[in-house]
Amino acid sequence: MNDFLKEFKDRGYFYQCTDEESLSKKLNDESIKGYIGFDCTAQSLHVGSLVQIMCLRLMQKHGHKPIVLLGGGTTRIGDPSGKDKTRKILEENEIENNIKSIENILKKFLETEDEKVSPIFVNNYTWLKNLKYISFLRDIGKHFTINKMLSFDSVKLRLEREQSLSYMEFNYMILQAYDFLELNNKEDCKLQIGGSDQWGNIVNGVELIKRYSSNEVYGLTTELITLASGAKMGKTESGAIWLDKKLFSVFDYWQFWRNTNDKDVIKFLKMFTDLKLSKIEEISNKDINEQKIILANEATSILHGTGEAAKAEKIAKNSFSENSSGENLPNTKIDISNIGNDIVNLISNINKNLSKSEIRRLIKSDGIKINNEIISDDKFIISNELIKKNNFIKVSIGKKKHYKVVV
């Protein structure tokens, strides 16, 4: 088996391949170009996109050249895969700003100096915007049957649940297939990688290229990652884990990995770090908390650099001790004039996913602290004297969540 595919499997990425034996031979024979597409619906990607990003890094490691497709065109349509409803359509300038921001984030992960493997960034709006509808239907649409399009999960599940699916979204899979055809023609791209929910779209592209040009191309999909808790990777009770530090601080990013469920640690070391698999095997014999710190440092270093990762670890060690004042924690700003200064309102504004009844239960079980002091009264008032002492207060919710609250 080809080295890239072997490591792709050993790290837990592999789900399906259109022709694994032929792809393995192709990868052994030559360095190829392969692409992954990212829709630009927000100014940042979140950790739910990390598997795909790590696949791009793995391609580079094995001498192949990644193409990063930023979906300026398809973002204007909306991918129905895994969605329950039509996605909000963004303004043109918002999409363009998102593209620039996401490209900058991806450059943090990818090798950009070595010309042999440096990524090619493309925006599919450059070719989709000029399509002539009649010509597109005649030349491309004729290769797709409604019967087959209705059989794909992205469409079938929406229809089974009697949720509306616009004709605009229905066309998404044809446009994604056309993207692959364009990249094959213009860049000699031979591989598309995507999540397992993209399988139907990827197969469409492979078949379209065969019919249109007889070129041999391949599709490769990854597992959709869920946490041991069953939650979808990328979202937590406090919202998305963004890759842009303006939206999600370096400390919070480090802490996200540090709080990984025990059952996920080794899996995530394989998937989200560059550590050799033999090294991860050694780490698996260490204390679980040591494993989590290694994961947090390695994952944070890839995105934010080793210096920032070390700083986050130091802040965590200092701030999570019982006697820490919390001054090194990132600021959480609260306008107390809008919410009142009782403890329940304060906590519900710090963590909007906690209901007030849950907060009261936490207080009764000694789960809330202000400046390291247990708060046992749910009518506790944050006094001006308490705030003025340091110009901030340290708020602890449970054992793992600590905030420096600037009121």
Give a nutshell description of this structure.
The chain has 407 residues and is of the alpha/beta class. It folds into 3 domains: 3-222, HUPs (Rossmann fold); 249-319, Tyrosyl-Transfer RNA Synthetase, CATH 1.10.240; 331-406, Roll (Structural Genomics Hypothetical 15.5 Kd Protein In mrcA-pckA Intergenic Region, Chain A), CATH 3.10.290.10.
Describe the secondary-structure layout.
Layout: H1 3-10, E1 14-17, H2 20-29, E2 33-39, H3 50-61, E3 65-71, H4 92-109, E4 120-123, H5 125-128, H6 133-139, H7 146-151, H8 153-160, H9 167-170, H10 172-187, E5 189-195, H11 199-213, E6 218-222, E7 235-236, E8 239-240, H12 250-258, H13 265-272, H14 277-283, H15 288-304, H16 306-319, E9 331-333, H17 336-339, H18 343-350, H19 356-364, E10 368-370, E11 373-374, H20 384-390, E12 393-397, E13 401-406
Parallel strand pairs: 2-3, 2-5, 3-4, 5-6, 9-13
Antiparallel strand pairs: 1-6, 7-8, 10-11, 10-12, 12-13
Helix pairs in contact: 10-11, 12-15, 12-16, 13-15, 15-16
How would you describe this protein?
The chain has 407 residues and is α/β, with parallel strands linked by helices. The chain has 3 domains: 3-222, Rossmann fold (3-Layer(aba) Sandwich); 249-319, Tyrosyl-Transfer RNA Synthetase, CATH 1.10.240; 331-406, RNA-binding S4 domain (Structural Genomics Hypothetical 15.5 Kd Protein In mrcA-pckA Intergenic Region, Chain A, Roll), CATH 3.10.290.10. The protein has helices spanning 3-10, 20-29, 50-61, 92-109, 125-128, 133-139, 146-151, 153-160, 167-170, 172-187, 199-213, 250-258, 265-272, 277-283, 288-304, 306-319, 336-339, 343-350, 356-364, 384-390, and strands at residues 14-17, 33-39, 65-71, 120-123, 189-195, 218-222, 235-236, 239-240, 331-333, 368-370, 373-374, 393-397, 401-406. The strands form 3 sheets. The chain has a 6-stranded mixed beta sheet, with helices on both faces. Strands 9-13-12-10-11 form a 5-stranded mixed beta sheet. A two-stranded antiparallel ribbon has the order 7-8. A hairpin with a 3-residue loop joins strand 12 (393-397) and strand 13 (401-406).
